[in-house]
Amino acid sequence: MERENFVKTVVPLILGIVAGVLSFLITDGIRSRDPLGIVVLVFFIYVNKFLLPKLKVKLEGKDWAGISLMSFAGWYITWTFLLNA
What sign results for the dihedral spanned by CA atoms 72, 77, 80, 83? Predict the structure, then answer.
């Protein structure tokens, strides 16, 4: 059970960080392309749906709020850091 909780936390966070880096690279700092960065985030949240069961994690309905929040947090912090660097 502890392994499942760890995976439910770490995998979405890592995917959020990857989404933040890709959002930065795709938008190239151009403010008019910000919605494209959000589309990247949504795609990576959706990737969790397929990746987590492959890691033998049983997902319940309430887990998606936490998974989405962790992905969003990783994406937001990474993208903001890169935009200000």
Answer: negative
Q: Which sequence spans correspond to the domains of the chain?
A: 2-84
Residue 79: how many other CB atoms lie within 10 Å: 24
Question: Contacts for 61-69 with beta carbons within 8 Å, 24 or more apart?
Answer: 63/8, 66/8, 66/9, 66/12, 67/8, 67/12, 68/12
> b or e along 29-68 (b: 16 or more beta carbons within 10 Å of the residue's beta carbon)?
eeeeeeeebeebbeebbebbeeebeeeebeeeeebeeebb
pLDDT of residue 85: 78
Task: Output the pTM of the full model.
Answer: 0.89
SS3 58: coil
